[in-house]
Design brief:
The protein is mainly α. The chain is built from four helices and no strands. It starts with a helix and ends with a helix.
Length: about 100
């Protein structure tokens, strides 16, 4: 009788530990999606130039700006990028001449 009780308690303990471990996995999956935003870059977090998360107002503005730049002619896009950087660089044609 004591042997059966001991085997039952060991089996119940193993089952409870397994279920609790499975529960932690699903909780961590949901938390990790949002926690990545708060981890510093030096500790493996998002880089500074990462786009915003989908579903946020910043993401909608980012996608509109990206679409605007995509529809813009390449020459105008280069001029705008140079104006934003504040530097003037020579193109490969100017370097050859």
């Amino acid at each position: 009788m004591l042997m059966r009780f001991r085997l039952f308690s060991i089996a119940a303990t193993v089952v409870l530990l397994g279920l609790s471990l499975a529960g932690c996995g699903t909780v961590n999956e949901k938390l990790s999606a949002g926690m990545g935003d708060y981890v510093p870059q030096w500790a493996g977090g998002l880089p500074a130039d990462a786009p915003p998360r989908p579903g946020t107002p910043q993401y909608d503005a980012y996608m509109k700006e990206r679409e605007r730049k995509r529809l813009m002619p390449a020459a105008d896009r280069e001029k705008e990028e140079q104006a934003q950087k504040g530097t003037t660089s020579t193109t490969s044609k100017d370097a050859v001449r």
